[in-house]
Write a structure and sequence with these properties.
Length: 238
């Protein structure tokens, strides 16, 4: 096993100073065959080192008759914890290639395990690197990766005559709009990336001649997934 960088993982996203990051929303499985050796890749979103260890133990039990269970994970941000294992393969031929695939996609909070059933033919160091790399890629291609964005839920109250202008301004910045509520005025909730908030508020006030009421309600982490918009956590900024 190798440890790269800081091994500490801060689970509280609010304290990790990033505006967005890439991660895996839904894990998947891939498989390749190389000279009769079978490489099974499994991808998991993770939140802690303890969770990674538990998944590894379950994988070893599930594929109890396999020769190798090689893996790598990246966890947290600023800095990230990176760990990997060749699990008996020649040094640098399994864990590192898997880790490099994760790094190449700029992913964090993800574990990739590649289980190998030996097919009777030695692959050599170059062959092993290619095989573990290809398996990890295949596993991630069968997973769903997302960009989690640090944003603010902005409540916009305005006259009906300003609704079209507001929706245009939000759409021009690719800001996600939630369903409006119609009363004597229109209320619209928007998920605004933190770095866009100042400029957007200025545009909204100018576009409505200062008549819109803007209320920053909650901070959150959100993402566009295959299932639609997902809000992962919300909090009040202290």
């Amino acid at each position: 096993m190798y440890i790269i960088g800081d091994s500490k993982y801060e689970k509280n996203e609010k304290e990790q100073q990033v505006e967005s990051y890439q991660t895996v929303y839904r894990g998947g499985m891939g498989e390749i065959i190389e000279k009769k050796s079978r490489f099974i890749a499994e991808v998991y979103p993770i939140e802690s080192e303890e969770q990674a260890a538990q998944i590894l133990e379950e994988t070893r039990k599930k594929y109890w008759d396999a020769r190798h269970h090689c893996w790598a994970y990246v966890l947290g941000r600023n800095p990230a914890a990176e760990r990997m294992s060749d699990d008996g393969e020649p040094a640098g031929t399994a864990g590192k290639p898997i880790l490099e695939v994760i790094r190449g996609r700029k992913l964090t909070d993800v574990l990739v395990i590649v289980t190998r059933y030996f097919g009777g033919t030695l692959l050599g160091t170059g062959g092993l690197v290619r095989a573990y790399t290809s398996a990890a890629i295949d596993g991630l291609e069968h997973s769903e990766s997302i960009t989690r964005i640090h944003g603010i839920k902005l409540l916009i109250r305005a006259e009906y005559t300003d609704l079209g202008k507001i929706q245009y301004l939000l759409a021009s910045r690719d800001v996600i709009q939630l369903d409006p509520v119609y009363t004597d005025k229109v209320e619209l909730m928007a998920l605004v990336p933190v770095e866009q908030m100042k400029g957007l508020k200025a545009d909204l006030m100018e576009g409505t001649n200062g008549q819109a009421v803007l209320d920053e309600t909650l901070q959150c982490w959100f993402a566009q997934t295959e299932d639609g918009i997902r809000i992962f956590s919300e909090w009040v900024e202290e």
